Amino acid sequence: MPSFRYILLWMLACFCVLTEARSQGLMIRNYNVKDGLANATVYAAEQDKNGFIWFATPTGVSKFDGKRFRNYSKKDGLTDNDVVKLAADSRGRVWFFTLNGKPSFYLNSVIHNEDNDSSLTFNSRSHYLQYAFDGGPKSGYIWFLNSNNRILQYTGKQFTYDKLGNSGSDIYFLLKNDSIFKPLQTSYVLETLKDPNNANQRIITVCPYPLEDPAFQERIKSHAITILRNTLYSFTKKDAICFFNGAEWGIREDISNICIDNDNLWVGTQRALYLVKNFFKGEKKVTRLLENHYITSLLKDRDGNIWITTFGDGVYYIPYKNFYFSYLDNTNGLYSHSIFSIFKDKKTDLLLIGQNAGILNTIDAKGSIRQFTLDTTSGRNSVLQILPDKENSVLIATDNALFQFNTQSQKSKLLKSVKMLKDVDISPAGKIRIAAKNQVIALDDYAISDLDMLVTSIASVDDSTYFVGTNNGLYFCSDNSKQLMRPGDNTHLKQSIKDLKWINGYLWIGTSDQGIYVMHHDSVVKHLSTAIGLASDICQQLYYDGVGQLYVATNKGVSVIDVNKQEIVRNITSNDGLMSDDIRGVFYDDGLLYIATSNGLCYFKGNNLPVDSVPPVIYLSNIRYGDSTFLPSKDFVYLYQRKSSFEAEFGTIVFDLPDQVEYQYNFSGDSTTGWVTTMSNIIPFPDLQPGTYKLMVRARKYKSDWSQPLSVNINILPRWYQQWWARGILLLLGLLLILFILRYIVRRIKQSEKRKTEYNRRIAELEAKALTNQMNPHFIFNSLNSVQHLILEKEEKQALNFLADFATLMRQMLNNSRKSYISLEEEIAFLTRYLELEKIRFAHSFTYKFIMEDKLKDYTIYIPPMIIQPIVENAIKHGLAPKNSSGYLEIRLEMIDDLLYCSVDDDGIGWDKSNALKSNRLVKHESTALSVIKERLQIIKSFNGSVGKLEIIDKFKSGFGNKEGTLVEILIPIVKML
């Protein structure tokens, strides 16, 4: 039982590691609805005269320039959305075949149909068009064969049934007269090859000519090809010769369409796509592609790209340059798509490919692939390096071990287990040295261990000396010293190093992020970086081909360097056809370059890279001005719209690397200077002013020259108000308006000055009146009498004091009258001195008191001068003086909002009684004093907007109980400062 289990496991292992011969892979891109295609089902593809690729779908047609799909449907002019075929004639028209039979075509950005083109008015009688034939650009005629086997003719002016007038007007008639009726299709599917009207035509089912015969090849490529089930015939009036029998090539299903691509033959069926590479060179190898895809049409465009349309899976595209490359990944034989190393043994012609999971793939000369699992440890166990060793053997380094592999017997042998192995090198005499984690190992000799750095690479100078690359720089070591030493004190050599190569006395140092340094005699003699064209400064591996070229594997492609000139020759990237820019390894063998990437293995003739240097076709897509979009035209004339943006949208017909297209535009009209480079295909000009302009645009694709400029003449017409005469009138009106405004301003200023003068005059008058009325002449007269009385009574000292206080009061009054505002403290001091003199004059017949709110002491308050004194004087003179007993006067000061509230309260005879006792002269005097105060308050309001108030209250009549006297309240505008 155990032996049976081992036999079963052995058989299973053999089945797993030995696979059938595989052919090269092709990089095929798919375009689908998500990319903008009208429908995933595509019936046909056609390229028009300008280079656009058109696709017919059940929901309209799509026009493709390599980057954008422009879709058209019935609303754009199609006679029906279900378009089953396309044909492009020599006049640049693209014809749309629909099942309703109504003809339509696209020309000059417009779809022509019977509604907008009377030449297409035609009664199809429910028969639809099937095939199209061209009469050439000179005649302009197009012939069609409809589903009723009738030939129709389009002259450019009308659409009619043919006038050939014989019953033989059918598909055979058109095909055998292909010198007149040029077929607009590559092949025709027929039910039979028998032409009922050509009894002399021979049908040859076995090809009598070798396919390599140039004359036979010319016949196949210049005449119509007919498809009969799964065979292909070259059809002429004389004979129909079979040149491809699908059964002989393993194609059992019926052929639906074909495409001839130079020496290659593409065959589409309802099950798959077949490529017979070098068919016309006699090769017998067929490649089956797009398994389980219904191929509806095949097209080779002018650049050599292949387009494959499918039923339900969109469009597939194979760039022409991919035919220069061969690809290997997990889709055609390898274990996975991630490749780390490659090597080819010349003696056995065995290709070795190292991958992740410890897998080694071998491909022999017949294409048979075998897989071996070398490193079975857990974690990282990729096959990092493959080096030539002794005869019929190679060294294979993985993440965790070093193996020896025999290329004859294809058996491996473990040499040494090494954790975190990074690099292996072999000296000229065959000494093996290993760089691993923090140690350097000389196999079967010694090891330098426990280094405080990560060892990344090693390069032998001779059998006893070598260089070591680490994460903190370069070191030198010999078998005698067994110690790592710095080679000089060069800061450039202290970078993190990824790989080393010793070539002809020079050390090439690949760094982690500083490019490549070249060292000679311990000195750096060259630095190569992205600044001078290196693909990337992150170097992953260095490979020397032995014939003068160093290949640098980076994360952005491969750089090829001439080691003798120490110059970068070229870069190879995914733009050139690599499967990925993440390069892990390179190998060169007799002109064939192998490049290992993270997405598969790519190999090609290293000196035969395709370079598409032909400039792209540039076209004007549309023009937008304001809110309108206009069809493309080389002349654009439109009336100026204020603040409207002018935009010209361009495009290029580039199917390979459309995202690499650059544009340059020039608005100066000078084709030599003034070009502006952009990656955008929309060129905006905001608020383009009236004038005549010439816009030139050109483009270039990857590695091509600039195209010839496409020019657009732009004429923005001015509005009436932008004409010179309108501008003159507007200028004149503007000057008149300015003069009017200036005159108005001057008048306002004069009026303002006049009002100000009047205000000043009135203020001066009021201040004079106030000054006149502030100090009653009776007070002066009585004060002088009091002085005389004191002198007569021999009270000279008291008289002198009174006279001194009186003089001080008069001086203070005169000083305050010159000011617009005085402080509240100054006003209280003035009133206090005034009241003290009045007390002396009236023999101390009254007392007084000032009551001031506490918060007034927090500010410096300024009030108009001489505005409280007249009120106080009236209170004493007319309220307290006539009283028989002693009186009391209270002056209260408070803050209300931004106004000073002042009340003068006396317990005199009262306002009404006082008025009754006054003489007419006194009444006049009082009325004048009070009116002056009110007018001063009004004028102050006109200047600063603050509203004052004066109110006189007889307390006996106003509800103060039995109290007599007068209360005068005044609100005074103030200036308040902290």
Structural overview:
Helix content is 19%, strand content 39%. The protein is an alpha+beta fold. It folds into six domains: 1-22 and 332-418, 6 Propeller (Neuraminidase); 28-185, Methylamine Dehydrogenase, Chain H, CATH 2.130.10; 193-318, no CATH class; 617-722, Immunoglobulins (Immunoglobulin-like); 723-769; 818-977, 2-Layer Sandwich (Heat Shock Protein 90), CATH 3.30.565. It has a five-stranded antiparallel β-sheet. Helix 4 (724-774) packs antiparallel against helix 10 (920-944) and helix 6 (796-817) runs antiparallel to helix 7. The longest helix has 51 residues, at 724-774. One of its GO terms (molecular function) is phosphorelay sensor kinase activity. Pfam families: His_kinase, Reg_prop, Y_Y_Y. InterPro entries: Bact_2-comp_sensor_kinase, HATPase_C_sf, Ig-like_fold, Quinoprotein_ADH-like_sf, Reg_prop, Sig_transdc_His_kin_internal, WD40/YVTN_repeat-like_dom_sf, Y_Y_Y.
What's a quick, concise take on this entry?
The chain has 978 residues and is of the alpha+beta class. It has ten helices and 70 strands.
List the helices and strands and how they pair.
Blueprint: H1 2-17, E1 29-31, E2 44-47, E3 53-57, E4 60-64, E5 69-72, E6 83-88, E7 94-98, E8 104-107, E9 110-112, E10 129-134, E11 142-146, E12 151-154, E13 159-161, H2 171-176, E14 182-183, E15 187-189, E16 202-204, H3 214-222, E17 225-228, E18 231-235, E19 239-245, E20 255-261, E21 264-269, E22 273-276, E23 286-289, E24 295-300, E25 306-310, E26 315-318, E27 325-328, E28 339-345, E29 350-355, E30 359-363, E31 369-373, E32 383-388, E33 393-398, E34 401-406, E35 411-417, E36 421-426, E37 432-436, E38 439-442, E39 446-448, E40 455-460, E41 465-470, E42 473-478, E43 497-503, E44 506-511, E45 516-520, E46 523-528, E47 539-544, E48 549-554, E49 557-562, E50 567-572, E51 583-589, E52 592-597, E53 600-605, E54 617-625, E55 628-630, E56 635-639, E57 645-653, E58 662-666, E59 676-678, E60 682-686, E61 691-700, E62 710-717, H4 724-774, H5 777-792, H6 796-817, E63 822-823, H7 824-841, E64 846-852, E65 860-863, H8 869-880, E66 887-896, E67 899-906, H9 911-917, H10 920-944, E68 949-954, E69 966-973, E70 975-977
Parallel strand pairs: 15-17, 16-19, 56-62, 64-66
Antiparallel strand pairs: 1-26, 2-3, 3-4, 4-5, 6-7, 7-8, 8-9, 10-11, 10-14, 11-12, 12-13, 17-18, 18-19, 20-21, 21-22, 22-23, 24-25, 25-26, 27-53, 28-29, 29-30, 30-31, 32-33, 33-34, 34-35, 36-37, 37-38, 38-39, 40-41, 41-42, 43-44, 44-45, 45-46, 47-48, 48-49, 49-50, 51-52, 52-53, 54-55, 54-57, ...
